[in-house]
Each structure stands twice: as structure tokens, then as C-alpha cells.
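Help wanted!
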Amino acid sequence: MDRTQLLSLLPHQGSALWLDQILEHDADSIQGLSAWSYLQPFGPDASPCLLFEAAAQLCGAHGALYGSEKAIETALLGKLNALQLHHEPVERSGLLRIGARQESLGAAGALYAFSIYHHERLLLDGRLLLVLAHA
Amino acid sequence: MLELHDLSFRYPNAERPALDGISLRIAPGECVGLLGTNGAGKTTLLSLIAGLRQPQQGEIRWHGAPHIGLVPQQPAFYAELSVHENLRLFADLYRLRGAERSARLQRCVHSTRLDQLLGQRAARLSGGQQRRLNFAIGLLQPASLYLFDEATVGVDAHSRQALLEAVHSLTEDGCAVIYTSHYLEEIERLAQRIVLLAEGQVRLDLDKHQLLGDDHGLLLEWPDSPPAGLEALLVELKLTGLPTPHGCRIERIDSAQLARLCQFIAGQPQVPNLLRFGRPSLEQLYLHLSGGAL
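Answered by r_m:
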């Protein structure tokens, strides 16, 4: 799934969409690609931890694909925890591969464990609770 | 700057409302000390102002855009990130950029004495150090109103002085502050105005000087018992001495009366082992108010 399709799946539009591609997905998990360039508006010192936003959008895409027939109107990040930065690359270039696995789904929302890899090396991981409101 | 009009809030299944008809007005540059026993409604009120909860009745009116910095009771940072990473992340989330970002980060680190702890994982910090990180994250937010909810619990004395200085600087810069603490000497030092909450209602809202007054009192105690002649002197000076086990407490005394009393004390064979002269503290007054009809 490319960026054009993602724009129709998620409420994030223009530069607010931090995903470039969905690589694969099933009912439990999803894989996608993001890029360092989305941090550029935050300046050269921006924390790589901000990339949790790309992970949240990937989880939102998973929720949209498997949660219901309807498109997502809003995807709210209800909680972010266990956030861990494993290293900080000197060069901010190359693809960012994101994976997320749904750990539970309930009335409060969907809980995902996510991880972000840079050059096959774990960069950031954590858990997030996504509250999905369908159109 | 901010007006609270008839705010009420009740938690589900609660017998009584946590807040019941709160009306307050907060001006720029003002530091309001919010007092009350546990369960009086202080944290609920702060969470309503911060927008974390919605009032079920009443209105919050802002004059200008609401920009709020919050230092909550509970730690609000990422335990697995370092102190520096937490501060960087929150600086980005607060949309700080360039020189302002660097300056605010530097100032917050300095005023919370976190300079030596930047590389440490937040989870590894002591309780007091975690409070300082919480404090720094709250200060980092550019805001016109800062809310501090028991922000210095467990912080060592030296660091606490630095944190209080940081709060004081906020009001000097024209920001408003609402400060709750069980350390009443902090509120006495910082606040110009004292608001006392009881059972979800404002029971008292006064300027600190108006509340504490200008009357000075005297507490006197001797190792054994007060010297003979003291009682007669008090009558002569038209002073009322409230007896204590080894002396007395005089609630109001002027300088001439104090001079006569000191002359008398100096002439006695036994000197007092306690002589305390001054205004009543906020703590004394609070205990009196909350232990009485309130």
C-alpha cells in the first residue's frame, strides 16, 4: 500500500502523514516504512523518540484495515509507555522500518507493541494504546 | 487572565461532589497558594483548569489563549528514557525550536539541578530526582499559567530551594501560578494569595498579608515554671497570656510592651529556654482554620 492509498485510509493528510508505505499486514500485525525527513520540521536536534508518531499512524492503519469496514475518522493516541531509545544514529538517513503487533483489543481501544529499525538495528520501541473512532 | 465560574465536578458513584460551585479569578503574575486537606478538591480543580477533565457545571473563561504548564503529583515522564532524552522529547512535543529550545532546556536543567543527571535513565533516579525531572518538564512548557500539584514531595532541602526560586521567577516574568503543597512554608514563601478549599468549596480567599496580619505574638517557656511576678506584669501591661505547660503564649504584643517584658526576663535568675517572637505562620493559621469550624 503506497502513500496515496494511505492518505485515503488515515485522517492524516499532507506532511502530517509520517508513513510512506505499508509492506505487509495480517490480523495481528503490520509492517511499514517511514523516513527521517518527517523530523526535519522539528530541527536538527529533534528527538528520535518523536518517531512514535509514525508508529501510532501505522497502528491506526492496522485498526482501519482490521477494526471495521468503515474508514477511521479520528485515531487518538490514548497512552504511550515503555518508550525506549536504543541508540542514536550519527547520520539520519536511510529507511525506517516499523513493525507493530496488536496485543489486545477492547472497548478502551487497541493496545500495540511497536518497534522501529534503522539499518536493521533497533532504534526505538514501546507500547501505545490507540483510540479509534470510525466515520 | 482566567476566571472560574461556578465549577462543579462529581466522580462517578461519589457521595458528594469533589468540587461544588468554585468561582475564582486568577491574574497574570499572581501566585495563588491552594490549601486544603486530602480530598478537599485541589487536584480535581487543577485537572479541570488543565483541561484533563471537563466540569459538569460552570465555566472556565480564559482571557487570551490558554497556555498551561503542569507539574502533576504523579511522575509524567518516560522511565526508560534518560533525563536528557525526556527533556528533548518534551521540548519537541511543546514545539520548541532553535535558540528558544536551547535556552529553555538549559534554564530548566539548571533550575532543577539536573545538570549532573542528564545521562541517567529516569527509572534509575531517586524519588526526589524524579520529582525534579517532573518539575523540569513542566517548566519547559512555554505557558502563561503554571500549575504545581505537590511538586516538591521528597525533594532534598537544597534542591527544593532551587525549585522555589524557579517558581518565583515565573511570577516575576508575569506568569500566573497555582501552587498546592503540604509544605505550608513553601506556600507562605511563594503565594501572594491563599485559597482554602474544604469539601469542594472555597472557604477562604484572601491576600496573604491580610490573612496573616501584622500582629506579632510571643511564646515564652522556662525549664521549670514561669517566674513569680510574670502574671502581675502581664496584667500591668494589659497583655493576655494564654498558659502553656511551662510558660505562656501572648498573641499580640507591641514593641514597648516587649521591651518591658524583656527587661523583666533579664532580671530573673532563670532564663527562658524558649522565646519566639513573630507573626503566626501560615501553618499555625491553617491548623487553626482547618481544625475549627471549617
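OP: Thanks! One thing I noticed: The radius of gyration of chain B is 23 Å.
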